Amino acid sequence: MTLQRNGQSGWFPSNYVEETVDNSLQKENGVHEKIQSNNGCNNGSGSAMPYPSPTPMLTTSSVLECVIALYAFEASTPEELSFRKGEKLDIVDHPAHDPDWWQARNSRGQEGLVPKNYIEVVSTNEGTTIPCLSSTGWSTSTGTPSVGSQLSREPWYFGRIGRDEADRLLSSGREGEFLVRDSESNPGDLSISMRGVERNKHFKVQSVDGQLHIGSRSFPSMATLIQHYTTNPIFSSTTEKLYLTRPLPK
């Protein structure tokens, strides 16, 4: 065997020496092996397993519109979403295959299809992921409430009553007395019912882009519309000319 000492080397008898292991090298190798073994999860058999992939984060659907329910709706299929009258919803999709139904999400995070004619858009969110809803209901950035809710304190607004009920109420009124009610055939629109000379009259008022349309005329508000027809006839024929005189007493 050869021996190296102080930079000098030479031959020597092997029975005059004993071989030892350098502990510093053993320690270094042990640390290296430990690092290698910790590069994965141990499966109990000593072999390393890779770390599980992180769970993908759920993305929030874009909010297209903020709406309010004009009527209550009870779901009849698992794909539909039930809601109460006056409940606020986020619209997250307009299914191309069925334009009469929109995909909505309620304040509890439940999603489903809702009939478009049962809801009214109160503001658009331009496809952001910021919901219209908060844990307490309508958020502060969602716009204005529905037309009906704005009229609830007006003496002439009778809310959700049908044409037959309006006729019954007007039967005891005087010519020109009137009431405003929610449209039966077009949720979101309104109707004016008034006492006529021979029979009652009913006029449809459509809400389009913040304007109220009756016939060929449009008005910024129902109060403005009513004021106009107190001095201009809302109906005119060869036998009668009708003006809105005063709200029917409740």
UniProtKB/TrEMBL annotation:
Domain SH2: start-end pairs: 156-248
GO biological process, one term: ephrin receptor signaling pathway
This protein's GO CC annotations: cytoplasm
Domain of life (superkingdom): Eukaryota
Positions of the SH3 domain: 62-124
SUPFAM superfamilies: SH2 domain, SH3-domain
GO molecular function: receptor tyrosine kinase binding; signaling adaptor activity
One Pfam family cited in the UniProt record for this chain: SH3_1
Keywords assigned: SH2 domain, SH3 domain
Protein name: SH2 domain-containing protein
